């Protein structure tokens, strides 16, 4: 993978980015995504944010090697602190992290989102945490998709400002994904359900504390939701 030949995962993230928007790519690693978007002509300005020194330096080198220093500003900082009000950022992308971490980044830096109209988020796991954050902070799901690449399954969620309510099913599966029920969607949730059943089996072999009881009930509820979703 490089700045002109992205993985399918990052290509899909890129496809969600509105044309001509100013973006901030948080956790940008090698800055492949913003470089790709500028090269394709979809955007002309971007910030690539990194909190880890090695990836930050890699992003700087990548942007320089692509000749895009006038278009992409590589910044060192934690989460959304790389964004300033004067940047006029309209779109934030965060890809390749766990859902709870993405939600924490958004929560800790939400005062930096004043000019932001669109959030494009690609959690590796636990996308539910992002949907919960969106509800609590008045963002709504505009689009979402699911894909498999190299044996791993990824969800991508696009948010814009607005209120929404979601059922337990929609929180877990995604309101758009649950309606589409793609082959990848079914594969993901069959695998998840099988893993939860394995954990339940382990619970039956240990002391039955109140904490175990609560966790067992949560898993049983999620398994029931999966069965209902796949059989509907």
TrEMBL record:
- InterPro entries named in the record: SAM-dependent_MTases_sf, TrmK
Which Pfam family, giving just one, matches this sequence?
TrmK
Domain of life, per lineage: Bacteria
Q: For this UniProt entry, which residues form the secretion signal? A: none
Which PANTHER family does the annotation name?
TRNA (ADENINE(22)-N(1))-METHYLTRANSFERASE
> What's the name of the protein?
tRNA (Adenine(22)-N(1))-methyltransferase TrmK
